[in-house]
């Protein structure tokens, strides 16, 4: 008797552009992605909504379902309290990853999806090992480095093809105001 194994995976999506090549790779590898946008770290709320709108464009292109978490920036700020002046890749980012991955893990469990991952690893500005360390705290986390196989470059190409907005900062107001802002687009 052959037993079908569910290859569903909940994908924490930070934005449309990072999701493009990540989704493409997951599908190529036989996964069935379900998208999750839970990013209370993004500020201001208009930016959060703009990124979600672009994720919906990507979801529609791939014919995927997308769930949106509740936006509560104050709860996120409480989670990183005292770390506001940390540089990018520091303790603030670790706690931010923990906040988003915990929320994604809980959402996966509620939806009955055994596996989850994040598109954050596609960014050339993010430390995948730091994300994997935090992700390993949660059952079902899949360590997928979407930068591999030229994922970042592919995300730029796909973003241009789809006419997606590409942001110039990670998302939180602390990265926006110099504690991590980088030249170029994320």
Q: Can you walk me through this structure?
A:
The chain has 7 helices and 4 strands. Helices cover 45% and strands 10% of the residues. The longest helix is centred in the middle third of the chain and has 21 residues, at 91-111. It is of the alpha/beta class. The termini are far apart. Helix 1 runs parallel beside helix 2 (45-62), helix 1 crosses helix 6 and helix 4 packs across helix 5. A 4-stranded parallel β-sheet has the order 3-2-1-4, with helices on both faces. It has helices at residues 16-28, 45-62, 73-79, 91-111, 128-135, 151-162, 173-176; strands spanning 8-12, 32-37, 66-68, 115-118. Helix 1 (16-28) links the parallel strand 1 (8-12) and strand 2 (32-37).
Notable characteristics:
186 residues; alpha/beta; four-stranded parallel sheet; 7 helices; 4 strands
Q: Would you report the number of β strands?
A: 4
Compute the gyration radius: what is it? 16 Å
Which regions have little confidence, pLDDT < 50, spanning 5+ residues?
179-183
- The coarse silhouette is globular
Helix count equals 7
Mean pLDDT, all residues: 93
Q: How far apart are the first and last residues' alpha carbons, in Å?
A: 47 Å
Helix-and-strand structural type: alpha/beta
Strand content: 5-15%
Order of neighbouring strands in the sheet with most strands:
3-2-1-4
Compressed to H and E, one letter per element, the order equals EHEHEHHEHHH
- What's the main sheet like? 4 strands, parallel
Helix content: 40-55%
């Amino acid at each position: 008797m052959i037993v079908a194994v569910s290859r569903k995976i909940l994908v924490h999506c930070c934005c449309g552009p990072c999701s493009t090549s990540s989704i493409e790779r997951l599908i190529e590898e036989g996964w069935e992605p379900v998208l999750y946008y839970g990013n209370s770290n993004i500020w201001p709320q208009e930016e959060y909504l703009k990124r979600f709108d672009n994720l919906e464009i990507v979801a529609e292109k791939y014919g995927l379902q997308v769930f949106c978490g509740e936006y509560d920036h104050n709860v996120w700020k409480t989670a990183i309290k005292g770390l506001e002046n940390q540089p990018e890749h520091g303790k603030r980012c670790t706690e931010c990853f923990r906040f988003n991955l915990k929320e994604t893990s809980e959402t996966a469990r509620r939806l009955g999806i055994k596996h989850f991952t994040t598109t954050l690893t596609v960014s050339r500005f993010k430390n995948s090992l730091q994300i994997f360390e935090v992700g390993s705290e949660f059952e079902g986390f899949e360590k997928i480095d979407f930068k591999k196989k030229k994922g970042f470059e592919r995300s730029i190409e796909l973003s241009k093809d789809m006419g997606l907005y590409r942001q110039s900062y990670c998302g939180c107001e602390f990265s926006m105001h110099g504690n991590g802002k980088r030249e170029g687009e994320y």
